[in-house]
Design goal:
heterohexamer; A: mainly alpha; 2 strands; about 65% helix; about 0% strand; B: alpha+beta; 4-stranded antiparallel sheet; 2 helices; 7 strands; about 20% helix; elongated; binds adenosine-5'-diphosphate
Chain lengths: ~450, ~110, ~450, ~450, ~110, ~110
């Protein structure tokens, strides 16, 4: 069940608005395009500088720059990977599991650049949009960028840069692209199955969280983990980062409506409500259990809420968002504290604790709380995404499939890359810090 | 000459400086340090990881004075830095064999 | 005189554009919606991380995180307060002084979510917009968020977190919501009276400034105020914050046009001009009187200009903006330096000196400089907001009413909260710093 | 060849969409206006806080604030210069070399504010836009602001503030405005000549780079240059700055399409690709030649790619963007390292090495790689900007003319200002640092 | 009394502190310093400008103990700070003439 | 052995280090300090609140040398740190009873 199908009514509207004569010529709507261009900028803002700051704000002084570099470089690296093959593998028809090579190097745009984008052209489940394909490619690219950038937070302070580069090229093509195809392409098996993921709870967050956890397990704990003081050097950076993630998330979720209409409005509203509620629930949970409401707790809660509402954002009403945020804040608090310490792995920046767990919570609750009328279409007046047992089971299925596939594939890729270039720096380098060791720079 | 090294609470610094001026002390050197002692710090929590902050921010004042002035300088500092609460700090006196003012080359008492 | 009435022509246009057949079905304009979604993101950006940085950059190292927390937590807290009851109290018909409970928990959106928003539906002064209500709710929510966040700057470094939370819940519902209703709802008494506040000079800035001043007077000065060196730890943060406030203000003011048309364009232009002029006038005033043009002075001037142009932004031409900025910069410079030191209160981050005074300057000058044609409508070709003695008197009236109401209500609430949970930390805690005392964290 | 002519089809579309009756009345398109308002905010974001951070992150602790002040103050100063006379000189008809005084103080907006903007009205090469002139003025203002702010990076750490203010007022009016007129006004001689600069490779980047280099040569090297350690105090700020520049550049380039249509989409896509490729090519060039991939290298590469794609962004396809980015990254790496050290000048923050050289690379490659169909119009179905020898020669011509004019004019102005207020602080002040010496402030 | 001034590798600090407690040392003062010595640092490169980092981050521990304790304290520190790798640092012992606890005015041994 | 403690202007540090190497000094320790003295600082103004900056950034160099070397080391530092302008700083010489190299356990002269 791709959200892009949802854009049909909007497209229709635009066409109507344009008037027949004009419609033949182009169904591109300037308002929808304006919003999608803006959303693209907002989602890129989430990774650079948003995520770069959020993560850099949680590490020690000696790896602040290296941590920023991971997010910044991902933006460049994955952009090219996406242009060369990732987009083609994710969003061309291909089969139920992966796209084809028809858009390698984005070939074909020379002809279609000024036409409205039709996803799955040729298929009867094809979805017409009111924006050009260039904008769709860009918007999706920013999603492909942030996913690996999120995952690497789990292994902060210890991964070699060359290993990161090699690993993420492979991971983006062999793990991210297929899953994006499954969920968001009308031909994808999860879309056909009828599981719903409006803006990427499965594709982005569960995917990143699980991949991060596997990397953390493969690479092992940081030197001194548990014994030495690893308190953040500059939490202020993390607050700025979380704030930009929050603001950028409006593009992430409301932009996933692919049009500047009522669905985008509702998506933005529920996104805000879930983020806010989770901030409160994490903060109060910590206040009660630890005695103080920490700043790191508040911003972590916000991210947890944003993650959890992501798959639901186009399908639920404000009341449901309140519930999703409330649960996500508490559960992710437990995931980043209780669970992690219980199991003893070193998911350094809680990529799994927040994104993995938050994504699962959101995906499942979407199955229960989706409000049909928001996805009503001509042929399905009751809505195409309706909360209930049926949808819930589909969600469970999609979540499990994603977790298993990501875990296995990530493990294999990690082992391969480790064999080729070695994943981790040695103890002395780790003590000295990645900034100076990997990049020959340091904070003054 | 004596080097008086005082570890004090940061917010007492200005008072200490003012207390020394009347004694004719023309200069001193200050550094930010962290102190461990009887005074206990807060506990910091980051995503469930608790760190007990055993080191508290202090200021180290180093001032070199002529031997005859040392006694009064120590008293002045002790008075100005005193709050009566635990963690007020310490004053140590060390002998200095020689002092030189870089600008003029003057030595010992004249160098101060 | 609410600006939302002004959107009528735009709405009309959209309807025309849509063509009758389509119009029945929906009068939502994708371009206007795109701009309002963007504006909402921009205004949230003003608070997080904008204001968080602006304020955190002016405090000492030991309270940097706690100061950021105040803005960040406001975003979460007020969002929920707004969803639960604030929005309903501010923007439903009710009476001339406050709305009703018909939108508690945003009930009713399930039906109206995809219809264009009509404010004051049922009243003959109802104003039809070309955006869905969800977007209007979100846009207004960001205003409700930034107002208390601005006010708390006056008591930086000494307010207990629990007191802040309790106080702001009450203040938002009992002070902010009513004033927003007075000024921006067609049934509000100030709107009916005919005073003009395009984007929130009265509702947001005077309101926040006065509330901050009252809090500062109730809570008293910071320990060591006047004797100890309280110079900012990292002014660089304040420069980033002021910059984001400036950029975000485009959404604040141009977004208040509620449509992506000529009024939004003019609002953005005059906003820029006033901000720039005030930056220059504050800087030169300081250069002349203190001998050096400080960075803090320049950014403070920019904020002063932005505050002053806020109520005027949809009603004046560039020339008038130049005058408003010029005056605001100099007067606020005096407010944050001369006045404050003369009266001796400790408005720590000049919430009153800049926002209170700047808001008053702007509100009054709007009364004199409003250019009628900008608000011309079919029935009022000369404009509905025309500068002159009549409008000026209305402005004075509205300003005084707001100041008195806010001052009294804030004082009462402060006393109540103080009695319940104590507003202020004790001296030792204040010396140690709020970061570690309230949140158990500190900058490395 | 101004890009504003390109907007005709879009305008047409809007008119069609609006339907005849409505068209007479106004051809303003809400979607295009929404995007241009957003783009304006994005381009301002590039300067404050983007450039302020990028530059401040590369200097030593003692001049961080002063460096931020340069960008921040430019935003205010040039805004007013632009309003008073700059806009009029750049974008009114005048002659082939400069505009006239018909828009001094933006006079005339009172009448035209709600009409669509026609550039070069009266000329037969006039171009109708679908946005009001207020938006065009604002969008262009942000370009006028960033150009001098970029240039001053070349003389970081040593320029007196008063000299900066005086110099930039003159430079903006006598150097920037004329060149903008040459290139972007339909009557401008370079536009007539047929050289293409979509978003400002010549007007902004070559111009800023050359002006910066001349200033650096006139003012001489920093005290201790070559002998003392001048490593950046906080590169983290530079990463945030580069990230915001990258995101803001979407407004810079895609906004230069003046409409939210296919051209904007393509412009954003090629901008992303070139930025990403240049990041990779600079990083790998450094990795190979210096042994480590530095963070400063990665962000510098991104900026180099953004600069180089700027003149080409509306004229090329993704493949060409890949080539442009690849070359720009390597050439600018050489420019900021090899060339600079070979010639021995102290272009402190590489305004010339990155912007000057990157701009030249981009302008010339545009001449070779422009894909005609992107600029196809009714009367020129093959496109108005077509890569080839003819266009290439025009580009060379335009580039050389700009370099010569800027170099000479900047030199003369620098000498004049030096005579009047002295350009540089004395050695002792420079050692103490501009923060405390010029602004009486310092970082804690 | 003796002032023991030890320059050590930052990550050994906690061990050093723990090694001193059993000896009855109640407090110490720490400062971040940069050390130049046999241990060689990395090279940093900024846009082609190379800087050899000759100064490496170290921690200076200053602890005043009674004369009789000095020997054992030095050994304890040396043991706890030891990694065997170049750059482990130094320990210096200086004589202290006088010590005062600001809070109580106690002097010498009682002041520690 | 002697501990030479020099308070100098930050930008003279590299010269001081280079001046000591020829004397066979193998290492030294540096810390950032703030100095108060005859040299007067700037005034800072924040929204009308004026603060006179009485403390100026200085660098403290601590180097331990054998007694025979002390004299020449002091001269070398004084020469290298000299600018002739007020605020050049001071050099103090303190007696060291004992030195230990943590890595090897070598003591005194061998430890340096
Ligand atoms: N033996 C010591 N050597 C060096 N510094 C010490 C010693 N004991 C205490 N200090 C310093 O003095 C500070 C205050 O000591 P503490 O025991 O906390 O309180 P009090 O000064 O009231 O006894 C400590 O934080 C530490 O910096
Ligand atoms: N003569 C000295 N005086 C003061 N400090 C010194 C001296 N020699 C070394 N140090 C300090 O000890 C640290 C370690 O010394 P180094 O020669 O690098 O290794 P090692 O301790 O193994 O000999 C140096 O970084 C410096 O801080
Ligand atoms: N009596 C003193 N004890 C310790 N440090 C001192 C003393 N006098 C001066 N200093 C240090 O020396 C620095 C320079 O001294 P100052 O009087 O400013 O100039 P000069 O060295 O030319 O006399 C001061 O900033 C301070 O750090």
């Amino acid at each position: 069940m791709t959200r892009w199908g949802k854009t049909l009514p909007a497209a229709l509207a635009a066409v109507l608005c344009a008037g027949p004569a004009f419609a033949q010529e182009t169904g591109i709507d300037s308002g929808d395009t304006a919003w999608m261009l803006t959303s693209t900028a907002l989602v890129l803002l989430m990774t650079i500088p948003g995520l770069a700051l959020f993560y850099a704000g949680m590490v020690r002084k000696k790896t602040v720059l290296a941590t920023m570099m991971q997010s910044f470089f991902m933006a460049a690296l994955i952009a090219i990977v996406w242009m060369v093959a990732g987009y083609s593998l994710a969003f061309t028809n291909g089969n139920a599991y992966i796209g084809d090579f028809s858009r390698l190097f984005l070939s074909g745009l020379a002809e279609s650049w000024d036409k409205p984008f039709v996803m799955g052209a040729g298929l009867e489940s094809a979805a017409t949009n009111t924006i050009p394909e260039t904008v769709f490619i860009m918007f999706q690219m920013t999603f492909a960028i942030i996913t690996p950038a999120l995952a690497v937070g789990a292994v902060a302070d210890r991964m070699r840069f060359s290993a990161l580069v090699l690993f993420m090229i492979l991971w983006s093509l062999l793990v991210y692209a297929p899953i994006a195809h499954w969920v968001w392409h009308p031909a994808g098996w999860i879309a056909v199955l009828g599981a719903a993921d409006f803006a990427g709870g499965t594709v982005v967050h569960i995917n990143a969280g699980v991949a991060g956890l596997v990397l953390a397990l493969v690479m092992g704990k940081r030197v001194g983990f548990g014994s030495e003081n690893m308190s953040p050097y500059n939490l202020g950076l993390a607050v700025i980062g979380a704030s930009l993630l929050w603001v950028g998330w409006f593009g992430f979720n409301a932009g996933s409506a692919a049009a500047a209409g009522p669905r985008a409005g509702m998506a933005m509203l529920v996104t805000m409500i879930a983020a806010a509620t989770a901030t409160l629930s994490w903060t109060f949970a910590e206040w009660i259990s630890k005695g103080k409401p920490s700043v790191l707790g508040a911003i972590s809660g916000a991210i947890a809420g944003l993650v959890a509402i992501t798959p639901a954002s186009g399908f639920v009403l404000p009341g449901a968002a309140l519930i999703i945020g409330l649960i996500a804040g508490v559960v992710c608090f437990w995931g980043a504290t209780g669970l992690k310490h219980a199991l003893g792995y070193d998911d350094s920046l809680d990529a799994f604790g927040v994104h993995g767990i938050g994504g699962i919570v959101g995906a499942l609750l979407t199955g229960l709380l989706a409000y049909g009328p928001l996805t009503a279409t001509a042929d399905a007046p009751g809505g195409t995404v309706v909360g209930g047992l049926a949808l819930f089971m589909n969600q469970v299925y999609a979540v499990v499939a994603t977790i298993v596939f990501t875990a296995v594939a990530t493990f294999i890729l990690a082992k391969i890359v480790d064999a080729v270039v070695v994943l981790r720096v040695n103890e002395e380098e780790e003590r000295e810090g990645l900034d100076v060791v990997l990049h020959g720079e340091s904070l003054g | 000459m004596k080097l008086i090294m005082a570890i004090i609470k940061p917010f007492r610094l200005d008072d200490v400086r003012e207390a020394l001026t009347p004694l004719g002390v023309q200069g001193l050197t200050v550094s930010e340090v962290k102190g461990f002692g009887r005074q206990k710090g807060q506990t910091e929590i980051y995503r469930g990881a608790e760190y007990h902050v055993s080191f508290l921010p202090k200021v180290k004042v180093e001032v070199v004075v002529t031997a005859d002035l040392a006694e009064r300088a120590v008293e002045a500092i002790a008075k100005a830095a005193h709050t009566g609460k635990i963690g007020d700090g310490k004053i140590f006196v060390i002998d200095i064999e020689r002092a030189v003012r870089i600008r003029t080359g003057e030595t010992d008492a004249e160098a101060l």
